[in-house]
Specification:
This protein has about 400 residues and is mainly beta. The chain contains 1 helix and 19 strands.
């Protein structure tokens, strides 16, 4: 690349970062204790986040660890309407990260999301959703930082069929395009139907059936998948919300995969000061780096948040990520799998001025893998402020 072009890009990135930094300063100076800006039926909420990160292993390398400090500036605007029976929410944001030494890791991200919910008080509920993000961040499926475009879209229909029966139909599309030519782009269409039977005023039994198709630049043929799960979900309660189901999944390509299937999430408000959450899901996705192969994925998390004194929130989170490439690579000579464990603790200061929050976050991550060259450990300490208008 010509030196003039490189210098031009550098100047533009410096200007962008400066503008975002100034936006943080202006918002912090103008912010007052209110809930957004009213514009007709809409409430607009500009926000800005400023954080500093100390990273012990920026490139998540197994042997050649490089530590550095980075500054992240994020600005955005969220909005929502206040019309009865129609809920429109949106968010648009931009982010810039600058490193002290490893300036080749500097990057800018941006994204947006929209959701539209229309409902009849007694019967039908329709939800449309869409999001897009261009990011450069760690990708657990690949095992390294990747620049990529993530697109998600979907529509969900929900209806009370009778006093005891509830029906839901959901269509979801996702597409990931990687900047690197060594990582395969892929997309997925999925349809899921769920039938719920009311057991109590707070619980329903569920049967979920889903089917879909996956396409990948790394696979010669598309893959079809099917899943069935039975489970429970909560209804009509604020103390506990969630759903969980177990069953089986079949994945059909040039070689079939049959695995147990589970998916669920729960949020439990134990008391006025403590909340507990859990998430777990497994699935099969196209392998991002291995031709004509698939990745058996498990993602799970468990955490709690506790109010400490009046203005402080203390949170603990544990996450588990597993990738298991279905077929051995290199003509059957090498297996490829990994397990990543992450633990984090976060202290958030929430003063009476609701437009300001400050936080301190400590995270440790450890990955064990085959081959061992994919392993790493990493410690990150992050401190910052969140500003909301």
């Amino acid at each position: 690349m010509p030196v003039e072009v490189m210098n031009g890009e550098y100047v533009m990135r410096k200007k962008l970062f400066s503008v975002m930094f100034v936006a943080v300063f202006v918002l912090s100076s103008a912010a007052v204790a209110q809930d957004g800006i009213r514009a007709g039926d809409f409430i607009l909420s500009p926000y800005a986040d400023l954080s500093v990160i100390s990273d012990s292993n920026v490139r998540t390398d197994a042997d050649d660890e490089e530590d550095d400090i980075s500054l992240i500036v994020r600005v955005g605007l969220s909005f929502q309407n206040t019309v009865d029976q129609i809920r429109l929410r949106g968010n648009v944001w931009g982010l810039a990260e600058r490193y002290y030494d490893l300036d080749e890791e500097d990057h800018e991200d941006w994204g947006q999301s929209l959701s539209l919910r229309m409902f009849d008080r007694d019967r039908l509920q329709i939800t449309l959703r869409q999001s897009f993000a261009r990011v450069e961040s760690f990708d657990y499926a690949v095992g390294s930082t990747q620049e990529r475009d993530d697109l998600r879209a979907g529509i969900a229909l929900g209806r009370n069929l009778t006093d005891k029966l509830e029906g839901d139909l959901d269509y979801a599309f996702r597409k990931t395009d990687y900047e690197s030519p060594n990582v395969f782009d892929w997309d997925q269409h999925r349809v899921m139907a769920t039938l719920g039977h009311v057991l109590t005023d707070k619980t329903s039994a569920t049967l979920s059936l889903s089917a879909g198709r996956q396409s990948s630049d790394g696979n010669d043929d598309d893959a079809d998948f099917y899943a069935a799960r039975i489970g429970l979900r909560t209804r009509g309660t604020d103390k506990m919300t969630g759903a969980f189901g177990v069953g089986f999944q079949r994945h059909e390509s040039d070689q079939n995969i049959n695995i147990p299937s589970f998916r669920g999430s729960v949020n439990w408000r134990a008391n006025e000061n403590m909340t507990v959450f859990a998430r777990a899901e497994n699935t099969v996705e196209p392998a991002t780096q291995d031709i004509n192969n698939y990745n058996k994925v498990i993602r799970a998390s468990l955490g709690t948040s506790v109010n400490v004194m009046q203005d402080y929130l203390l949170s603990f989170t544990g996450r588990y990520n597993r990738n298991d490439i279905d077929r051995r690579i290199d003509d059957g000579a090498v297996s490829k799998d990994d397990d990543t464990y992450t633990v984090s603790a976060r202290l958030t200061y929430r003063p009476p001025a609701r437009w300001l929050q400050a936080f301190l976050d400590v995270q440790y991550e450890d990955k064990t893998a085959t081959p061992k060259s994919n392993e790493y450990s990493q410690t990150m300490v992050k401190a910052g402020v969140n500003l909301r208008y």
